[in-house]
Amino acid sequence: MRFPNLVRFLSAIIIFAILPTIFKGHYWQHILNMILIFTILAISVNLVFGYMGALTFGHISIFAIGAYTSALMSTNFGFPFMAAFLCAGLSGVFTGLVIGYPTLKLAGSYFAMATIGFHKIMEVVFLNWDSVTGGASGVTGIPYPVIFGMNLKSEENFYYLIASVCLIIYLLYSNLIKSHQGRTVIAMRDNAIAASSLGVNIEQTRIFVFTISAVFAALAGSLYAHLVRYVAPEAFPLSDSVLLLIMVVLGGPGFLKGPIYGATIIVLANEYLQSLEKYNMLVFGIGIMILLVFLPSGIAGLYERIKVYVLNNKFNQKYVAELGIEEVK
Amino acid sequence: MEIAQIAQQIIGGVSVGAIYALLALGFSLTFRASNIVHFAQGDFFMLGGYAGISFYLIFGFPFWLAIILSTICVALVGIGFQKIAYKPLWKSHHSFVLMSTAATSIVLQNTASLIWGPDAWRFPKLFSDEIINIFGVLIPIETIWVGVSAIIIMVIFNTFLQKTKLGKGFRAAAQDRAMAQGMGVNLNVADAFVFGASAGLGAIGGVIIAPILFVTPYMGLIFTLKGFTAAVLGGLGSIRGAILGGFLLGILENLSTAFISSTYKDAIVFITLLLILLLKPSGLLLKPQLEKV
Q: Which CATH number fits domain B3-279: 1.10.3470, 1.10.287, 1.20.272, 3.40.1350?
């Protein structure tokens, strides 16, 4: 376990603490919470798409499974929030293994299509397994989470819970990427044959990373269920999976901070583009094409490039090499 | 369940399967040539249906001309996307090209919903409602029409690829680009052919099935998935496998509707997909091979 840079860590905590005092009011609080939840989801998609190089459309279903698990545990069995949250995490492990095992040994195209199939199967299950999931009307009356005797009734109180979960997940994720496993995954993405000839077990590493990303998505689902306190099949459309991919591509696939930029911009853009209604998805679709052709490394990549350019002019080449800049191939 | 009823389901399955086979053929073509799965395959199918309706109902062309015109139009759309959105990405990671095809699918869906509106369109009845009775097996005439025309198109297409010089050149380009170019195959034309033909095949399927089905802007996805399942069932990249897979999937789907329930019809198709991927990912007709990197 690497420990984060203390200055950066503290400044992140301070930013998280200051944000709700700047963005006041129920509406802005809700948007802040949604940005954080989507950041967690985008992080989990970035692990699979950005670092592993596998296109996934199934993360919104894993998110849904986490949300349903958490909702059912707390309504039917009266589990406290923490227990329901952990159950959601376990459901993520289970789902990650079940999808990952048959599909991840295959080439990327098969995997992408299999995840769409998985999404369709889960849609049918959520809609038709009435006795458990409540069918089309979904699960209602999910209680407010109570942590250490504190009842998180308002959006603002909930914000601190989501923010701390988000921070912990970000730390775990950056640790994973900087660890042996993370380097292995990047090597596999860039050249699978070379990596496997150096003794990397490709299938095992892929399943490991995919399962971790599934756990993140399921935990985000649990937070979402307790925030909105209502879970129904139509809350998890396939277009949201596409939205997650747009976040990752816009932020910069294969860059640590990419998901943060992407999720923030897309959630805000989605709020403002609501007025466009019909054109909303069309704008996003054309947007991805333009991004992929002209800015494939996203905002994070652009930032790195500018940094290199500025540093190149200021200092010598050696300093730039020490930064260890990650380029997406 | 009687034998006659089972036979009826199988014949119905063959005619739906012919449509799946057309879609699967499109998938196999693009996969052989560029090693990517084209996510917008089902949306070209949808676009074909709409183009057919427009040419037939709004412009008043005869049906055969509507089929040809809509196929050409959709093929041009396919070539256009290949030039604009996929070609610049050829050298980057393959997941980027995949993502770009998914974006194509979103763009086509939403454009169609802007042009033709979000509601379902229906082709007027072209064929009679008659039902033929052969030894107690009831077959509606329109399903025979759909099946036969799809099979004729596949035969023509297969002959073109296997027998003509141009078709052989395109197959060579799919196998080894550099060598084919050395032998005088124009790679730009070959790429355009592959993407245009796969879009066109989808469109033909869409026009043929339009008289039976409602056409909606968002119907593409389910057909993308089924076409892909059919292609994988036979072996992705194999032309004969795509045709076999299409028919098998159609029959399987119809039988499962009859025996289990129509609610789970789609889910059963996707469970089949996951099972094939788990047990024999190379499909029924292809030998297992190492992943290309």
A: 1.10.3470
